[in-house]
Amino acid sequence: MIEFNDVTYSYRTGNHNALDHISLNFRQGEWTSVIGHNGSGKSTLVKILMGVLEGYEGEIKVDGEVMTEENLPDIRKRFAIVFQNPDNQFVGATVEDDVAFGLENNGVGRDEMVNRVEEALRSVNMLEYRTHEPSRLSGGQKQRVAIAGALAMQPDLLILDEATSMLDPQGRREVLEILREIHREKLTTLIYITHDLAEIGVSDHAVVMKDGRVINEGTVEEIYQDTDALVSSRLVLPFTISLADRLLDGCYMSYDELVERL
Ligand SMILES: Nc1ncnc2c1ncn2[C@@H]1O[C@H](COP(=O)(O)OP(=O)(O)OP(=O)(O)O)[C@@H](O)[C@H]1O
Ligand SMILES: [Mg+2]
User: Fold this and answer.
1) Residue 89 beta carbon below 6 angstroms from any ligand 1 atom
2) Radius of gyration of the chain measured on its C-alpha atoms
3) Where is the ABC transporter domain (predicted)?
């Protein structure tokens, strides 16, 4: 669905390439996780895709068509993004107003708007909070409302840029579980950015970034097996992986599997 071909970008004030010859595919219907330490270029990647940053070298194709200044506004409408900070994403006085906001801006009619808001809130299990004030929700609930706002736009691609990183473990679980369900049911194409390796378990494909480059990509098992690449990227290995790496050959995705092998 999306193809980065040899994309390089450097910020005007930067003294190095924030993205350094990136070539990557994001496939339709897949959950792709992008993992990397602070400053590895993950947000720059999606900012370029969203048209926030201009003046990159290389080429980006969406459904086979090269992204240009002319088609960018239309392409951009097909993508929705949820950011890191749950407190910076609200504009509405109530949960349902907030979810309706983007639809209103896009001129979606009243009846359809009501239906879409309801469906989006139901899919994140927040329908019963529709009349609540967003500021009074927990962090996890806020991010679920932000996801509902994105889903209501019926995007072809949903991007989450460290959307769980400011949440407590409970909030993280809630958000991940909701995303898992949405992905399973609707086969939504997802780009899930994180620096937490423990969160990539559900992805179909994972990409490891370091210093603006892609240093590894593959299935989750393949990523976990290349522990050297992960350690060199300064990522914290999940407990089962790091223990297995020290004790045994192979890859153990769950405690049960590891216990069995031990
Ligand atoms: N507005 C900016 N001006 C100059 N340099 C920037 C700017 N934003 C990011 N950079 C630099 O570009 C590189 C990539 O940053 P980016 O924000 O894409 O990383 P990231 O992987 O999203 O990091 P994090 O995990 O902290 O969100 C870093 O070296 C960063 O310092
Ligand atoms: Mg970032």
Assistant:
1) no
2) 19
3) 2-236
- Beta-carbon count within 10 A of 171 CB: 19
Could you report the per-residue pLDDT of 184-208, keeping only the tens digit for each?
988 889 999 998 888 898 899 999 9
pLDDT per residue over 30-69, tens digit each? Answer: 999 999 999 999 999 999 999 999 999 999 999 999 999 9
Q: What is the crossing angle of helices 110-123 and 95-105, to 10°?
A: 130
Give the per-residue SS3 of 154-165.
Answer: CCCEEEEECCCC
Atom of ligand 1 nearest to the CA of 162: 27
For the record, the structure tokens of 212 come out as 């603006």
* Other beta carbons less than 10 A from residue 4's beta carbon: 22
Please work out whether the CB of residue 14 comes within 6 Å of at least one atom of ligand 1: yes
Phi, psi of 180 (to 5 degrees): -60, -45
Domain-wise residue ranges, the chain: 2-261
User: Ligand 1 pocket, 38 CB below 6 A?
Assistant: yes
CATH code for the domain defined by 2-261: 3.40.50.300
* Tokens at 216, concatenated: 């590894």
Verify whether ligand 1 is closer than 6 Å to residue 44 (CB atom).
yes
